[in-house]
Amino acid sequence: MDIDNFRKLYLAEFEELLSAEAQVAGTLRDLAARATTRPLATAMDTHAGETESHRARLEQLFRAHDTGGERHSDGSMRAILDETRKWTGMVGRDGLGDAALIASLQRIEHYEMAVLGTLASWARRLGHEQDASAFAEILEQHKAADARLSRLAEDVVNPQAAA
Question: Range of 57's domain?
């Protein structure tokens, strides 16, 4: 797809978000199995379910745009997930590993939050209010997941890793 107008740019970024969500959904449960702290494993399983829900909702919204053709694949998320797998493979499966896992999960969250915020703004500019509302709602859920990870790191995981 040649991107020569704002609508096409919006749809290409939307496709990349769908690709990122699919990649994350396919990885979260595998990463959760590496967690040694029960609250972290539970939080990751919960977020995996949320990600599947987000993905289904976003797919439904995207289909309404009737773009057809080949979809974009998000190379940035692929690189973040490759780095996550490398990182978690280098660190043991203990408190230290859980600290590394949370750091990686927060990289993923922050990338998704950046894309969602951009898309919400662009959707409003294009008059796609239903899309904008969905992006904003999903963005808030990602912010909440990030805050839960921060609390878990500060209260449980980091003190164990530093011991």
Answer: 14-64+73-162
Contact assessment for residue 34 and residue 101, using Cβ atoms and an 8 Å cutoff: yes
User: Which secondary structure element, helix H or strand E, spans residue 126, and what is its range?
Assistant: helix 95-126
Helix/strand/coil for 59: helix
CB atoms within 10 A of CB 75: 11
Give the tokens for residue 161: 């890793």
6 occurs within a structural domain: no
> Is pLDDT above 60 for 10?
yes
Q: Which amino acid is at 47?
A: H
Q: What is the CATH number of the domain that holds 56?
A: 1.20.1260.10
Asked whether residue 2 is assigned to any structural domain, the reply reads: no
Could you tell me the two tokens for 70?
A: 């080949």
Domain count along the chain: 1
Does any domain span residue 8? no
Q: Is residue 3 part of a domain?
A: no
Instruction: Please write the tens of the pLDDT for every residue from 110-148.
Output: 999 999 999 999 999 999 999 999 999 999 999 999 999
User: By the 8 A CB rule, do 24 and 82 touch?
Assistant: no
Other CB atoms within a 10 A radius of the CB of residue 142 amount to 23
> How many beta carbons lie within 10 A of that of residue 45, not counting itself?
15
Residues 148-161 have pLDDT tens digits of 999 999 999 999 99
